[in-house]
Specification:
Blueprint: H1 5-27, H2 34-63, H3 69-94, H4 99-108, H5 110-127, H6 131-137, H7 139-145, H8 148-163, H9 169-190
Helix pairs in contact: 1-2, 1-3, 2-3, 2-8, 2-9, 3-5, 4-5, 5-8, 6-7, 8-9
Length: 198
């Protein structure tokens, strides 16, 4: 399967944060708690790519750059990829592969439950990301299913905020971005004539 140059650029740039994280871990430039650093970083990257994914449609409509749609799926898959690394880091290094410990943590710490919910919402989106799945499900049902990305993003922001309550500006920034993008989508849907389009 051939990959276009824009997709290659997006793919390459999406891997750069992972390479930088690996390099920092290798050089031990991650502070006194490498596990916490890796977990926070992968979680942050998940939110970044979720935000980029939901930003594609507004950017396409505002600036008239229809080609942006071609990289939306890749950005979504990278959100799931970094979300998987985030979860893996937690289960592997924090819980030492103890599923009983994970289940107990989910019950005892609400922010873990919210984070798990965000990840589980991304799972069906990743599974149905291929063209074959679009045809199998049907375009309309596929589009409706993939609106779960907004719920996943909101849950991710809440998870982040519950984790760092004393340092709220960053999760609130992500929250504002997601709500703005969701609000724009609702405006386009219910008041299309009032929304500026390039």
């Amino acid at each position: 399967m051939k990959i276009s140059f824009p997709k290659f650029v997006v793919f390459l740039n999406s891997l750069i944060p992972l390479a930088l994280l690996a390099w920092d871990l290798y050089r031990k430039q991650v502070g006194p708690n490498p596990v916490e650093f890796a977990t926070r970083t992968t979680g942050m990257l998940t939110l970044v790519f979720l935000s980029l994914t939901v930003a594609i449609t507004p950017l396409r409509r505002i600036f008239g750059i229809n080609s942006l749609v071609k990289v939306r799926r890749m950005l979504g898959l990278f959100a799931f990829f970094y979300g998987s690394l985030h979860l893996l880091t937690y289960i592997w290094f924090d819980r030492l592969w103890s599923l009983a410990s994970v289940a107990s943590d989910v019950v005892q710490r609400p922010f873990i439950l919210v984070g798990m919910t965000a990840f589980l919402l991304m799972v069906p989106l990743a599974i149905t990301s291929s063209n074959k799945m679009v045809k199998r499900i049907g375009g309309k049902r596929w589009a409706n299913l993939h609106r779960l990305v907004y719920l996943a993003a909101i849950a991710g922001v809440v998870h982040f905020w519950m984790l760092v309550k004393s340092d709220a500006p960053l999760p609130l920034t992500f929250g504002f971005i997601i709500l703005f993008l969701l609000g724009y989508r609702l405006l386009v849907k219910y008041f299309p004539s009032d929304v500026p389009i390039s």
